[in-house]
From TrEMBL:
This is Secreted protein. Keywords: Signal. The lineage of its organism: Bacteria, Bacillati, Actinomycetota, Actinomycetes, Micromonosporales. Residues 1-22 form the signal peptide.
Amino acid sequence: MTTMIRKSVLGIAGLAFAGGLAAGPLNHHDATPVTATTPVAAVQADKPDAGKLIPHGVQGTQSRIDLNDEQSANVKAIIAATKKAGLPERAAVISIATSLQESKLENLGHLGDRNDHDSLGLFQQRPSSGWGTPEQITDPEYATLAFLKGLKQVDGWQDMPLTDAAQTVQVSAYPDAYAQWEQQAADLVTQHWNS
């Protein structure tokens, strides 16, 4: 039964992102690359363990963007939903990195001609592929919980490199693109997990 559910969820996720969704309007944003040697934020006793946030080390050149108030609020919403789902900080890192790649942490509505199919929200989920209604998937909590539901169906996600875990749920045309956001996602979780 579990295998059937997992295959169904991943099948829906695959449909949601087949055909190059990541190649859609979101990849036109500029991101300032930083080298993989960017120092990790200092970890305090009340902050998540950096080794658990990035267990495999970052993969490749890292990107980073400055966040506005809306994007910061979306980070906090992703972290709150991760806690609500009872998942650890690593799940929040994967979720935030995925949202950074898919929408730059912007809760995107319909973009007209620039829209990739009917993709919406932080994770660019598609109503036509079973992720939920437009109202649901543009709700940061709902969208995050939907993403995390897919992530929990991935056997061994906790031990996978971030890009593999995110790609298994998202099924992007650019599977390695998620890796570039791992450091910034980990820094954001360190900053906001206990705030």
